[in-house]
Amino acid sequence: MNDCPSKQELQNSLRQAHKLLSAHEASYLQSLRTLRKKLSLLQNSTARLSAKPNNATCPKLDAPANGRKLGKILLPGHEIHFLCDAGYELMGSETRQCKESLSWSGQQPVCKDINECASSPCMNGGTCTDEVNGFTCTCAKGWAGPACQSPTPTFFVTITNTSAASAGAAAASSFPPATTSPFVRPSKCTHVQGTTHCTCEPGYTISGRDNSICTDIDECELFHNGQAGRLCLHSCVNTPGGYRCTCPAGYNLTRDGRNCKDIDECANRQNNCTRDQLCINTYGGYQCVRVECNRIRNATYAKTSSTRCERNPCPIDNKACSQAPNSVSHHFMAVVSNLSAPRVMFRVSAVRVMGDTLRFSLLGGRGRRHFTVQRSDRQTGQLLLVTPIQGPTTLEVEVEMSELERKVLLGRYITKITVFVSQYEF
C-alpha cells in the first residue's frame, strides 16, 4: 500500500494553502487600512487640540440666584445642568453644553419666583399675596380660612314677643347647652329690644330653623373642586370647624398645608438598598437597581462604572465581535404620571467624533411607542416623549448611536434608559 500522496493531490493541497494565505492576507490588509484610518483621524484630532491652548475649556458658569448647577467639567462636549430652589421656576436653558468653539450652547438661566397667586387660590373674592414658596389670602367680609373657603359666623334673626319693660332693656346674651358631637356646636345668641341675633364659630353654620344649633361646614364637599381650584392637591379630610389636607405615602405636606412634596428616600437614607445597588428616588418612593453587563454572543464586557459596561478588545479576525456594541450605558429617571408631551427626556452626545457620520436610532424596549429619537445637532441626539404615560408603570427604551466612516461601521454605543412613572401627577 502506497501512503505517499499523488502529484495531483499535492497540487490541490498547495492551491488550498495558497487560497488560505491570500484570504488571511486580504483580511490583514483590511485591518491595517482600518487601523490607518483611525490613526489618521486621531492624529488630526490631536493636531486640532494641540493648536488650542492647554487650558482649552469653556468659561466658568455661575449658578443662578436661588438655584444651583450640576457638573464641573468645562471641556468640549460636557454639559452643565441647572436646578432652581423650591418656590422658583427655571427661565432659560436647563442644560448648556460646552461646544468645540469653547462657547456654551443655550442661554444663561434665571430662577424666577413662582407666582402662587397665578392660579387664583383665594376663593370668594379673597385677595392673594404672593410669598416665597407660598401665598397668603386676605378674605372678603363673610369668609375665612387659608383659602377663604369657610363662611364666617352666620346670623339668624328672629322677632320675639317681649314686654314693653324689656323692650328698652339693655342687651342680654344666652348660651344654649353644649352638644356632645364636635360637628355640632351651640350658637351664641344676643337679645336686643325684641330681636335675637345668633352667631356661630368660624367653620359652622346655623342648623336649619333651629337658631340655637350650629353644624359643621364640610369644606371638602363644598369647595374641594371649586372654580379657584382644588383645596388640596391630593386628599381633603373634613374636621370640626375646618379641614386638613393629606398626602400619600412617600410625600410630605408643604408649608401652605395644601400641596405635597416628594420625600427623597435616597438622600435621606430612608431606603434598604444594599451596597452593590443604586438607589433611584422616584415620585412617592424609590427603586433599588443593580446594573449587570449583558451577555452578548461573540463578545465579552467589563463593568467600568456603576452604570456602564465596555466591550473587551476583539480578536482581529472576529467580525461578529467588532459588530457588537462598544459600550452599554444605563440611565434611570423618575417622572410623574401623564407628563405633558412632546418634551425632551434625554440627550446622547459624542464627545469626540472619529468617523464622518453619527447616526441615532431607537431600538427595542417596553414602551417604545411613547418615544422617538431626533437629532439636535451634529454630535447630539435626543430622546423625545411623544405621548403621555399613565402611571404607575416602568418603561425601558434603548437609544443607539452609531459611528461610521464612509458608511463603514466604526462603533456602536447603546444607552438603556429606564423610566419610573409615578401613579400620581405630582
Automatic annotation (TrEMBL):
<keyword id="KW-0732">Signal</keyword>
<feature type="domain" description="EGF-like">
    <location>
        <begin position="216"/>
        <end position="261"/>
    </location>
</feature>
<dbReference type="InterPro" id="IPR001881">
    <property type="entry name" value="EGF-like_Ca-bd_dom"/>
</dbReference>
<dbReference type="GO" id="GO:0005509">
    <property type="term" value="F:calcium ion binding"/>
</dbReference>
<feature type="domain" description="Sushi">
    <location>
        <begin position="56"/>
        <end position="113"/>
    </location>
</feature>
<dbReference type="InterPro" id="IPR026823">
    <property type="entry name" value="cEGF"/>
</dbReference>
<feature type="disulfide bond">
    <location>
        <begin position="139"/>
        <end position="148"/>
    </location>
</feature>
<keyword id="KW-1015">Disulfide bond</keyword>
<keyword id="KW-0677">Repeat</keyword>
<feature type="disulfide bond">
    <location>
        <begin position="84"/>
        <end position="111"/>
    </location>
</feature>
<dbReference type="InterPro" id="IPR000152">
    <property type="entry name" value="EGF-type_Asp/Asn_hydroxyl_site"/>
</dbReference>
<keyword id="KW-0768">Sushi</keyword>
<keyword id="KW-0245">EGF-like domain</keyword>
<dbReference type="InterPro" id="IPR035976">
    <property type="entry name" value="Sushi/SCR/CCP_sf"/>
</dbReference>
<dbReference type="Pfam" id="PF22914">
    <property type="entry name" value="Fibulin_C"/>
</dbReference>
<feature type="domain" description="EGF-like">
    <location>
        <begin position="113"/>
        <end position="149"/>
    </location>
</feature>
<dbReference type="InterPro" id="IPR000742">
    <property type="entry name" value="EGF"/>
</dbReference>
<protein>
    <submittedName>
        <fullName>Fibulin-7</fullName>
    </submittedName>
</protein>
<dbReference type="InterPro" id="IPR000436">
    <property type="entry name" value="Sushi_SCR_CCP_dom"/>
</dbReference>
<dbReference type="InterPro" id="IPR055088">
    <property type="entry name" value="Fibulin_C"/>
</dbReference>
<dbReference type="InterPro" id="IPR018097">
    <property type="entry name" value="EGF_Ca-bd_CS"/>
</dbReference>
<dbReference type="Pfam" id="PF00008">
    <property type="entry name" value="EGF"/>
</dbReference>
<comment type="similarity">
    <text>Belongs to the fibulin family.</text>
</comment>
<keyword id="KW-0272">Extracellular matrix</keyword>
<keyword id="KW-0964">Secreted</keyword>
<dbReference type="Pfam" id="PF00084">
    <property type="entry name" value="Sushi"/>
</dbReference>
<dbReference type="Pfam" id="PF12662">
    <property type="entry name" value="cEGF"/>
</dbReference>
